[in-house]
């Protein structure tokens, strides 16, 4: 039947349907902490004049994309785990496909922008402020958003042209482009090609350019004479490198699991599928609060101000 009349069934943890509420408590806690942590990061950067450097503007973009990703995935998780409702209409599913993929690739692009920000700061620190002005940073942010929208806008439109069974069962508790294409009953060559373009021009390209930027950073650091200055330069990249690994490693683990043991360990596959969207928004604020002295100082200043106001 046509896509508009199709219904999709969300999938929880196979074999643990009776315990969904208990199993979902850690996942819900991750979502709540992610939303709280990223809102705190956004609040600090927006209200503290000391955090107006390009690095922190990019960090605010990362926090905003994390919040968008939580808002895209959390509703269907609540819908399934707490309300026990599995059914999802096609239009809602297609909208979720767009927002999940768009926010994922916004995050990937922001990580790339942050990598080149670190490279410029290490290689040309004297001219850093003149190269990455607020205007340049705003243009980069606009380009990231436009690229994400243009790349993913055709996907849901092309999905509407496909034929689906009246009732289809999804692999996860949210909708993904590859999942819907796999469930279609009609020719999906164009949709598969679009999905390949998504991957090549976003995650693959971004990850390659991030690796290139770190290769350039290492080459620049090797040219620094003082060992102390080398260590200081590399230390500025630690937090960014951590969140890059947090972003890409769960995706790599899920990809390996899907090819090796998806059918042998279905509950683990679903858990990994949930965590690969939930872990980056959860960990990013924690990593930057631990590693960034300016973020910690701004946070402590806010707490101290609250204590003074209370007294």
Could you walk me through the main structural features you see in this protein, from its secondary elements to its overall organization?
The protein has helices at 20-47, 54-81, 90-123, 128-131, 134-152, 154-159, 177-183, 189-222, 227-235, 238-260, 266-291, 293-310, and strands at 7-9, 87-89, 167-169. It has 311 residues and is mainly alpha-helical. The protein has a 3-stranded mixed β-sheet with strand order 2-1-3. The model has no long low-confidence stretch (mean pLDDT 84). It contains 12 helices and 3 strands; from the N terminus they run βααβααααβαααααα. The chain starts with 6 loop residues before the first strand and ends with a helix. The protein has a single domain (3-309), classed as Up-down Bundle (Rhopdopsin 7-helix transmembrane proteins), CATH 1.20.1070.10. Helix content is 76%, strand content 3%. It is globular, with a radius of gyration of 21 Å. InterPro entries: GPCR_Rhodpsn, GPCR_Rhodpsn_7TM, Olfact_rcpt, OR51/52/56-like.
């Amino acid at each position: 039947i046509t896509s508009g009349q199709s219904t999709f069934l969300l999938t929880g943890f196979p074999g643990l349907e009776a315990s969904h509420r208990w199993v979902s408590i850690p996942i819900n806690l991750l979502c709540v902490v992610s939303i709280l942590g990223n809102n705190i990061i956004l609040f600090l950067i927006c209200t503290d004049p000391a955090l107006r450097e390009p690095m922190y503007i990019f960090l605010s973009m990362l926090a905003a994309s994390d919040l968008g990703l939580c808002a895209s995935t959390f509703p269907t998780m609540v819908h399934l785990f707490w309300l026990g409702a599995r059914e999802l209409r096609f239009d809602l599913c297609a909208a979720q496909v767009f927002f999940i993929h768009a926010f994922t690739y916004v995050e990937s692009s922001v990580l790339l922008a942050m990598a080149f920000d670190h490279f410029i700061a290490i290689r040309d620190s004297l001219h850093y402020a003149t190269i990455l002005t607020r205007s340049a940073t705003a243009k980069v942010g606009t380009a990231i958003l436009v690229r994400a929208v243009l790349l993913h806008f055709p996907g849901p439109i092309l999905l509407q042209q496909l034929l689906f069974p009246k009732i289809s069962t999804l692999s996860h508790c949210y909708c993904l482009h590859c999942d819907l294409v796999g469930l279609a009953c009609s020719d999906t060559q164009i949709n598969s090609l679009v999905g390949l373009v998504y991957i090549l021009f976003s995650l693959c390209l971004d990850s390659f350019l991030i690796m290139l930027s770190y290769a350039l950073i290492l080459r620049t650091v090797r040219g620094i004479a003082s060992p102390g200055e080398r260590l200081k330069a590399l230390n500025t990249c630690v937090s960014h490198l951590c969140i890059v690994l947090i972003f890409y490693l769960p995706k790599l683990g899920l990809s390996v699991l899907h090819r090796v043991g998806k059918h042998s360990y279905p509950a683990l596959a679903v858990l990994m599928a949930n965590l690969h969207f939930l872990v980056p928004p959860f960990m990013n604020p924690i990593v930057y609060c631990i590693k960034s002295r300016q973020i910690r100082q701004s946070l402590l200043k806010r707490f101290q101000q609250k204590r003074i106001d209370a007294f």
